[in-house]
Predict the 3D structure of the following.
Amino acid sequence: MKAIITCVVCPVSCPVEVEYHEHEILSIDRNQCKLALEYVRNEMFDPRRTVTTSVEVEGGAMPLVSVKTDRSIPKTQVAAAMKAICTVRVKPPVRTGDVIVANLLGTGANVVATRDVDPAATGAG
């Protein structure tokens, strides 16, 4: 079978023509660099994505903290990951790199904060 996969490893974004059978790439064409082969193989047979979203901060100076997975997870698990993450609430202080969810859905990926959020300022009389 044949497919066209747009390789996004570099800014060129080559439309790579791929000929494959089951889980084997037979040939690729129209790629301008050798990095395309690994990208195309992964995208066709084991597509993964880094998940980025936000989590509610209870009592924070900001209502949300941005988060992301520290590694990509199987694309088939992204919807379930978002559903799991949307139930999470954290309390400040939150620091960049803090693990918000460990081993998300058993994928080995941690959800980590990508910014700092301090506690909300309290009024001093």
Notes: Residues 36-45 form the longest helix (10 residues). The chain has a mean pLDDT of 96. The chain has two helices and ten strands. The CA atoms of residues 18 and 28 lie 5 Å apart.
